[in-house]
Specification:
10 helices; 9 strands; alpha/beta; Spore Coat Polysaccharide Biosynthesis Protein SpsA, Chain A; single chain; binds uridine-5'-diphosphate; 47% helix; 2 domains; nine-stranded mixed β-sheet; binds magnesium ion; 17% strand
Length: 340
């Protein structure tokens, strides 16, 4: 099999307003870095707007474009996984569709990879334009909490924007888990990984697809995926309470012997309420891990592809790709709608 020198993998959810400009700038950057020897893998993550139609139109005029249509919205990390699993390049650039991360950095990232003999060049945000104070503050707090909780060195202020070697990508694709926190998983695989500083821009168009609820779910996946520290806290806390209850036992026995056993409604309620709350919290925490265990044991494919336009030559080991029974141009088959 012949691999292109470079694959650029881009997950897209409701990005129709970005796609044309994305295609133009990313193609130019790829050409500047490797000439014509590249492929562009766009993953449509169940967009509700016209993203898929735009992708197909772009694909019709560009033999280097591979457009992948997931069967529904799978979420950013799984859409990215699908693109990575189906791309075939010797080097792989991961980038968002909204042009917050400038594709023009590609050549410099390639040079850094060569010069430092690295397997991963990860882009570290020096500045983030156009993002709210709240987003920046929560993101910063999250990355710092995460690095305290985990044994893996997950770089701070780093998104998924990065360049990887084929062997690093293959190592990443050997991790089968459903709950994927890709930037952490890349850190986990090891190899030589070097930072690359850059300034993050504003979105080209549209708005963030990461509302607070998705950010929280993402943070939960990151923490439970990379650390069992919360479970350890639960047992430490339980142990501490055993000590406290011994002291209380002495106090209670003393009260009983001294004949004043009835008093103490306040302290009693306090113990009941506080312990009840703590128990519920700890149970919930255990439940989080248990739930993830349950989901992982089902071993479902990580993504389902409905249609592919162009030639996807990757290993396709983590998901399911539906057989296309008719040429992709045929309307109405396999979920293809005619181009509006
Ligand atoms: N994205 C996706 N599926 C989703 C949500 C987001 O593929 O369910 C893509 C989105 O199109 C973009 C990238 O993931 O290319 C990052 O999303 P976004 O820019 O909204 O996140 P932010 O930069 O605000 O953290
Ligand atoms: Mg963005």
């Amino acid at each position: 099999m012949t691999r292109p020198a470079l694959s650029i993998v881009i997950p897209c959810y409701n990005e129709e307003a970005c796609l044309a400009e994305l295609h133009r700038r990313v193609s130019a950057a790829a050409r500047a870095a490797v000439g014509e020897d590249y492929e562009l893998v766009l993953v449509n993550d169940g967009s509700r707007d016209g993203s898929w139609q735009v992708m197909r139109q772009l694909g019709a005029g560009d033999p280097r474009l591979v457009a992948i249509n997931l069967s529904r919205n799978h979420g950013h990390q799984l859409a990215l996984t699908a693109g990575l699993d189906l791309c075939s390049g010797s080097r792989i650039l991961i980038i968002d569709a909204d042009l917050q991360d400038p594709p023009e950095l590609l050549s410099d990232m390639m040079a850094a990879m060569d010069a430092q003999e690295a397997d991963v060049v990860y882009a570290v945000r020096r500045a983030r334009a156009g993002e709210t104070v709240f987003k920046k503050a929560t993101a910063s707090a999250f990355y710092r909490l995460l690095s305290r909780l985990t044994d893996v060195e997950i770089p701070v202020d780093t998104g998924d924007f990065r360049l990887m070697s084929r062997r690093a990508l293959d190592a990443l694709l050997s991790l089968p888990e459903q709950a994927r926190f890709i930037r952490g998983m890349v850190a986990w695989i090891g190899f030589r990984q070097v930072p690359f500083l850059y300034d993050r821009h504003e979105r080209h168009a549209g708005h963030s697809k990461y509302p607070l609820s998705k950010m929280l779910a993402f943070a939960f996946d990151a923490i439970t995926g990379f650390s069992t520290a919360p479970l350890r806290w639960a047992s430490h806390f339980g142990l501490a309470l055993v000590g406290v209850s011994f002291l209380l036992l002495v106090y209670i026995a003393y009260g009983w012997l001294a004949g004043n056993a009835i008093q103490g409604w306040t302290s009693m309620m306090l113990v009941v309420v506080v312990l009840g709350a703590v128990q519920m919290f700890v149970l919930g925490m255990i439940g989080e891990y248990l739930g993830r265990l349950y989901i992982e044991t089902k071993r479902r494919p990580l993504y389902i592809v409905a249609d592919v336009v162009g030639k996807a030559g990757g290993r396709q080991s983590l998901g399911y790709v539906a057989e296309t029974t008719a040429p992709i141009e045929t309307p109405g088959v396999n979920g293809n709608r005619p181009i509006a």
